[in-house]
């Protein structure tokens, strides 16, 4: 190779290294569309390098561009030749989002995951875990029942602002972002990617008064057609005053809205998943009539749309990674 050829080769290598640095920087900054384009440009120069296909697939995954993500990951696996677990998981996530069950089953089998027999959608019992809803926004964490490696049914009543509902089937990421306690054990927390199937249960915000936890327990134990579940948000949610946000008149005691002060807060904010308002009204009428001291103050319903991530948001990190990033910032 002549001196000129050697210099030209070095210049080309320097330019490609600079291009790769820009691609990773764009990804790290949450500029996913730009990152996908830059990794695509690199692939044009070096299509034989598997991690470039993988990284473009990763950018497309967080853009939730599932056809492109599946294609990228399948190409990465083809170029690599041998098995790579991260590539297979991302291909499985994309295939599940697309409802390509043959491909999803193929990828989970490659990962050594035992699946229910059949050829269609996977419906099994993969245990209880937690999911961060809209991790690019408020990241409310709720419990879910996993029906396959990356699909789950929401088991709590999410706050209306999330746009999610009790019973929704969501697609979640494959990597755990934290841990939460469930009973006597810890379960993983996963980031929700999107809702795949909407529940027929709407969310009703209900404001009541009652004398003690046995009153709430009685309500939670009641069954009625059209009622999905009842959740005492006063006990489980720590947020700004929900009653004020709904314009429901009440007094602000020191311990109102939570039980942390050592006493019982009579005012309770409940989340009720139900198919319609009439079912909620019947449930509360039966409950209030069954014991003294039970007061129904208001039943509210407000629909909120699902949110989408914005460019520049790095929402897929784990909780420890987020803390580390915040400290560095």
Query: Strand sequence of the main sheet, in spatial order?
Result: 1-2-3-4-5
Report the count of strand segments: 9
The CATH topology annotation of the largest domain reads as: Serine Threonine Protein Phosphatase 5, Tetratricopeptide repeat
- CATH superfamily of the largest domain, by name, is Tetratricopeptide repeat domain
By CATH, the architecture of the largest domain is named Alpha Horseshoe
Total domain count: 3
- The residue-averaged pLDDT reads 90
SSE string, helices as H and strands as E: HHHHHHEEEEEEHEHHEHEH
Question: Proportion of β residues?
Answer: 15-25%
For the record, the CATH class of the largest domain is: Mainly Alpha
Distance between the termini: 47 Å
Structural class: alpha+beta
Radius of gyration: 25 Å
Oligomer: single chain
Q: Uncertain regions: pLDDT < 50 for 5+ in a row?
A: 239-247
Largest sheet: 5 strands, mixed, barrel
Helix amount: 40-55%
Q: Briefly, what is this?
A:
The protein is α+β, with helices and mostly antiparallel strands. It contains 11 helices and 9 strands.
Written account of the structure:
The structure is a single chain. This protein folds into three domains: 101 residues, Serine Threonine Protein Phosphatase 5, Tetratricopeptide repeat (Alpha Horseshoe); 92 residues, no CATH class; 99 residues, Alpha-Beta Plaits (2-Layer Sandwich). The protein is 40% helix and 22% strand. It contains eleven helices and nine strands. Strand 2 and strand 3 form a beta hairpin. The protein is elongated and about 90 Å long. The two termini are 47 Å apart.
